[in-house]
Amino acid sequence: MSTKVNSEGVSASRVYLPADQAHLNLLQFFIEQFPHIPKDEWEQRFDEGLILDQDGQALPANSPYLPNTHLLYFRRLAREPNIPFEERILFQDEHILVADKPHFLPVTPSGLYLHQTLLNRLKKRAGIQTLSPIHRIDRDTAGLVIFSIKPDERAQYQNLFRDRAVNKVYEAIAPYSEGLEKKLPMTYQSRLEESEHFLQMQEVVGESNADTFIELIEKNKSWAKYRLTPGSGKKHQLRCHLNALSIPIKHDQIYPVLTPYQEYDLDFSKPLQLLAKEITFEDPATGDLRSFKSLQQLIL
Fold it and tell me: Using CA atoms, how far apart are residues 80 and 77, in angstroms rounded to an integer?
């Protein structure tokens, strides 16, 4: 079955109707299947034609429950933050698409974000509904993100990251430290684990599971630009490591102090000064050495 998308290029989700369940109608099924979503939200989705059969035909809420079938459904957001920055497509062939993501833009739909995501913007712009990211960077981070185009090749590209066969280089602006400069370049290692706060990671005692090679690129009296080469891919690794060295990344809203996000009224004047600058790997589909560089710059 081909992927269904709406007029904004957003892909539908797929749900299976089990044979061991019985429901009065489809509305009742969705309410019981997704109890975290209010009844009136499902009613509005049906009213707006966002629940489809396998042929892409909109279904009414009182449609009968037919076991052993699949349905398609779209998310609906009453309000979504607008991200006024554009992504760039740096490279595209029949296998991959490489994008240069701006700050603030999520890679994939989650929470308040659906249309304003790199994935759905690119699906609409490139007209490729099979696009799938093979790695992620934080919404706050700008820079390179690679997408696979053919579903049967996606695992090959993801395995590159699993096997650490990808060389990634980041740049960051953080406070200048004369004491730290004397130790650079250096490889910083620590053990990172989830903290009691959902958004924050923390360093704990134990065998290292995260390492970052840190170099100084340029400096002034207050700030410095650092080149960061992670040897591992732990969540928030670069942010945690610079924070642990007492040089938290400029405009970081999570380290050292977790600051509640503004859901809609985002402060676009203070982007996190972290950029996924370079990425290099051997393409498993072509055998070519691929090397890409973000066109964005962090300015001291």
Answer: 6
- Compute the C-alpha angle 172/170/236, nearest 5°: 80
Nearest to 45 by CA among 34, 3, 54: 34
- Segment 135-138 long-range contacts (CB within 8 Å, at least 24 positions apart): 135/161, 135/166, 136/107, 136/108, 137/101, 137/107, 137/276, 138/236, 138/272, 138/274
Q: What is the pLDDT of residues 124-159, one digit of tens each?
A: 899 898 899 999 899 999 999 999 999 999 999 999
What is the C-alpha separation between 288 and 10, in angstroms, rounded?
32
Residues 172-226 have pLDDT tens digits of 999 999 999 999 999 999 999 998 877 899 999 999 999 999 999 999 999 999 9
User: What is the C-alpha to C-alpha distance for residues 26 and 60, in angstroms, rounded to an integer?
Assistant: 8
pTM of the model: 0.79
| Strand, helix or coil for residue 29 | helix
